[in-house]
Amino acid sequence: NSSESHNCAKSILTSDRLQIVVTLSEFFNETWEAANCANCLKNNSEGLSNSTEEFLDLFNKSLTCFEHNLQGQGIDLSPNNYTEVCKNCNETYTKLNDLYNHLQRLNRQGGESAHSAHLCIDVEDAMNITRKLWSRTFNCSLPCSDTVPVIAVSSFILFLPIVFYLSSFLHSKQKKRILILPKRIQSNANLVNIQEKYS
């Protein structure tokens, strides 16, 4: 009965002392919000967004690549030679990492889901797992793309003092000591000595 809907909901949801249905409902809603689950979905929540599907596909490819290149090697805590994993899975991991960074930038601008600036917990956890495997377990690293600009700027800054002192040396007028010879009349004492010689 629609006229009694409020009383009906009240009697069903809050009839017990613990209010278990209300508590569970609030818990699931808070968990959904805290995990930013809506950010993995399309605006109308009909399914996963295209970018999330693309990310999860690349994530699965990365894990498959790791697993395929580890066959025949025992995974234990001792440092192993994982050069095959680093070499063969570098392209897949780089694509996944670039896509994740791109999704982060998109989400800050309000991306596909138009929700908060954080990616959903599934995407973040998947990237964290992959990065831990890549860097800690396999001890792989990506070459830094900013190496050339950093070296160029560092070299420029190191040579600035040399350029400064060299230019100040070349463009400053060097004060040379010039000896000025006195233009005085010879002293009388010399004249007296000369006269005494001749006399």
From TrEMBL:
Top-level lineage group? Eukaryota
| Name of the protein | OSTM1 protein
UniProt cross-references to PANTHER family, sorted A to Z: OSTEOPETROSIS ASSOCIATED TRANSMEMBRANE PROTEIN 1 (PTHR15644), OSTEOPETROSIS-ASSOCIATED TRANSMEMBRANE PROTEIN 1 (PTHR15644:SF2)
A cellular component annotation (GO) from this entry: cytosol
- InterPro entries assigned to the protein according to its UniProt record, in alphabetical order: Osteopetrosis-assoc_TM_1
- Pfam families on file: OSTMP1
Task: Say which species the protein is native to.
Answer: Cardinalis cardinalis
Residue ranges annotated as transmembrane are 148-170
Q: Does the keyword Membrane apply?
A: yes
Record key words, sorted: Membrane, Transmembrane, Transmembrane helix
